[in-house]
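Inverse folding, one chain.
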């Protein structure tokens, strides 16, 4: 037999194995993927520049759209950066409510990810279960904020309007429903020997490599690095709650998946600790001037996919002078993927599973 000829294959952006509005140029040696170049630009929107021409509060609407799968944590980072520019602190009640909103966002994002990982391994029942749980969270968002997907509920100075009278009751009811379904998903998927065979020992990323390559979030923690912005640099109401930071043991695709499952349980615990501390009474927002003072502001949060940072410069006007983002998915779609492909035999059949274990949000590349 002669030597296998290397070929290039385009995967995405419409392919179900691609992570959204992005494509890969794969280099194959037979069945093995030996290299992959990410091709962004299918969803370029220029949000960073657009935010420089809109009022400070209007930019909340823009900030939530960097990642449709986890809009609330991106929204929170912008609001915190704007408050840093203005030099204001939100009311205690607003900090707690914003933390609850952010953790609900983390849960629904991980549930959305379960749709994708279940689909690529052929566990077609998992997407149905995960979406049923996520739907109840979207209904909860609709009741609290008036919107299902993008919420625009956080504003510089607090939250847009007060919480309803039955906030605690409705929140706890949704958590009970979600927890029951997640328990079923754990037994049906994570305890499934077929799923374990598809993910165990595949896509291994060592802790030292994860740090060197710029990995964050569940990808970094899946490699055994116990690093979480909510712990190392607490913000909002995270210093009022106790929770664990799940980490992996082997740094493979299964560990990254398991970290996300465990994070759902931790987010449920965080919300339950906080929901009893908020009530419809009390101040929920401080009004801020239309014109911001000159200065700089930084918002740094732990999104569902890892560390996200937004830097804003103000020259003293109704709009920011410059907005710059550091999103988590770029490293996962570039340096991390290339490193694993060059050091491990990943087949074309396993490549979508490996990519989904990283859970990138392609839109946060095109910003």
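Residues assigned per position:
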């Amino acid at each position: 037999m002669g030597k296998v000829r290397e070929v290039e294959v385009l995967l995405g952006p419409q392919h179900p194995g691609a992570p959204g509005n992005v494509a890969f140029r794969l280099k194959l040696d037979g069945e093995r993927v030996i290299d992959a170049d990410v091709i962004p630009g299918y969803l370029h929107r220029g949000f960073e520049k657009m935010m420089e021409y809109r009022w400070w509060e209007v930019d909340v609407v823009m900030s939530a759209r960097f990642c449709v799968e986890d809009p609330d944590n991106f929204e929170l980072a912008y609001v915190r950066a704007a408050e840093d520019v203005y030099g204001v602190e939100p009311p205690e009640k607003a900090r707690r409510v914003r933390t609850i909103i952010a953790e609900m966002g983390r849960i629904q994002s991980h549930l959305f990810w379960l749709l994708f990982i279940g689909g690529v391994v052929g566990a077609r029942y998992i997407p149905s279960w995960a979406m049923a749980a996520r739907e109840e969270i979207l209904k909860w968002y609709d009741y609290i904020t008036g919107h299902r997907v993008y919420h625009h509920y956080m504003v510089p100075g607090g939250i847009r309007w007060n919480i309803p009278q039955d906030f605690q009751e409705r929140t706890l009811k949704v958590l009970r429903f979600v927890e029951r379904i997640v328990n079923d998903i754990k037994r049906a998927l994570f305890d499934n020997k077929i799923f374990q065979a598809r993910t165990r020992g595949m896509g291994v990323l060592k802790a030292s490599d994860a740090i060197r390559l710029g990995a964050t979030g569940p990808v970094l923690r899946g490699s055994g690095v116990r690093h979480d912005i909510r712990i190392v640099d607490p913000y909002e109401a995270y210093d009022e709650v106790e929770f664990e930071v799940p980490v992996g043991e082997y740094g493979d695709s299964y560990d990254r998946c398991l970290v996300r499952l465990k994070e759902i349980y931790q987010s449920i615990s965080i919300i339950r600790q906080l929901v009893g501390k908020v009530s419809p009474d009390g101040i929920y927002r401080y009004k801020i001037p239309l014109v911001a003072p000159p200065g700089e502001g930084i918002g740094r949060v732990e999104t569902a996919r890892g560390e996200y940072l937004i830097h804003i410069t103000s020259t003293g006007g109704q709009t920011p002078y410059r907005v710059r983002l550091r999103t988590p998915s770029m490293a996962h779609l570039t340096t991390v993927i290339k490193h694993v492909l060059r050091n491990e035999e990943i087949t074309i059949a396993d490549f979508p599973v490996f990519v989904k274990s990283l859970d990138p949000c392609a839109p946060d590349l095109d910003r």
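The CA atoms of residues 219 and 256 lie 6 Å apart. The domain at 50-360 is CATH 1.10.645.10 (Cytochrome-c3 Hydrogenase; chain B).
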